[in-house]
Amino acid sequence: MATIKIALLGFGTVGRGVYEVIQSHQNTLYEQTDSHIEVSAVLVQHPNQQRELPEHILVTDSIEDILKTDIHIVIEAIVGENPAYPYLKQAIEKGCHVITANKAMFANHGDELNQLATEHGVKVGYEATTAGGIPIIRTLQQLRVNQVQRIEGILNGTSNYILSKMADEQLEFDDALAQAKELGYAEADPANDIEGLDAFYKLMILSDTAFSSQPDWSDVMINGIKGITLDHIKETISSGKVIKHVATIQNEDGALRASVQPMLLSPDHPLASIKGVDNAITIDTDLLGKVTLQGPGAGRYPTASALLEDLVSVVKEEVQTSVPYRLQKHLQIVKG
């Protein structure tokens, strides 16, 4: 039985979730990959801190120590652009497949990492960068005949939760934000979420995937939800509409136009009924028409789910394209 060795970069909420799901889903992973998936190294800031990890797992703060070992796939769950970006470059150059959940880093450097991976014959998985467990990247990649004309989505669970609570429970903005923090839906510093940057990074990744390019970032209108008051919510409800924080990108005669901003939606709009921390994305295509995907947009297990779906895809593709591996399996069958 082949063993696929994994390194986790980061062992916070997402990294720990990936580790837990790998342990609890060993049978499923084996059925899907015909391989044993083993976490053999974990990168952390404080390696001497007590963690419930087996002794055989290398726990270190050195990416160089990890890349010296026999690692096949690196799963990155570090917050922020650096050091995630240089770490993934090093991993690719060593010949490792990489899988990331880092939206800010990938929005800035996704093209370069994909090109570098092609040069080194490895894959980059980034499903988890955009909408938690929703398979939007894979869906877009599978649209080969349909031409995507427009993408519209609720891409930030924190903002959607706040707006939902303001509307459903008549809460002021600060009270809804405090509740989101208490439940772990908002960071101590929620600026990226409520000011629209998180949704913007995700939108740029979707743009690259759907249109093979991004608009000039300075041309994208980015407005958050900080200025929305309970009075605004009440006025909207009385008019029969709903306020949602919507990220939009469309191709207009070859030019990409994008925005991230609060919008008034009619009840029949596919994003109007999305509540809580859920995300949803509507893809408008020339042949298929409109398709909407909805699901959990954040959290330990939805994000871990997306990372592991990428893991399975990478392993299965490697097995299918690896002649030595196929011959080895054939010889095992013959000898058996």
TrEMBL record:
- Tell me the protein family, please: Belongs to the homoserine dehydrogenase family.
Binding locations of L-homoserine:
E187
The Gene Ontology terms for molecular function here are: homoserine dehydrogenase activity; NADP binding
Q: What keywords appear on the UniProt entry?
A: Amino-acid biosynthesis, Methionine biosynthesis, NADP, Oxidoreductase, Sodium, Threonine biosynthesis
Which residues participate directly in catalysis? K202 (proton donor)
Report the NCBIfam families cross-referenced here: PRK06349.1
Instruction: Give the organism the record lists.
Output: Pontibacillus halophilus JSM 076056 = DSM 19796
UniProt binding sites for NADPH: K103
List positions binding NADP(+).
Answer: G10, F11, G12, T13, V14, G15
* Name recorded for this polypeptide: Homoserine dehydrogenase
A Pfam cross-reference name: NAD_binding_3
Record keyword NADP present: yes
Q: Does the keyword Cell membrane apply?
A: no
Catalytic reaction list: L-homoserine + NADP(+) = L-aspartate 4-semialdehyde + NADPH + H(+)
* Example GO BP: threonine biosynthetic process
| EC annotation from Swiss-Prot or TrEMBL | 1.1.1.3
Report domain Homoserine dehydrogenase catalytic positions.
Answer: 135-312
PROSITE patterns assigned to the protein according to its UniProt record, in alphabetical order: HOMOSER_DHGENASE
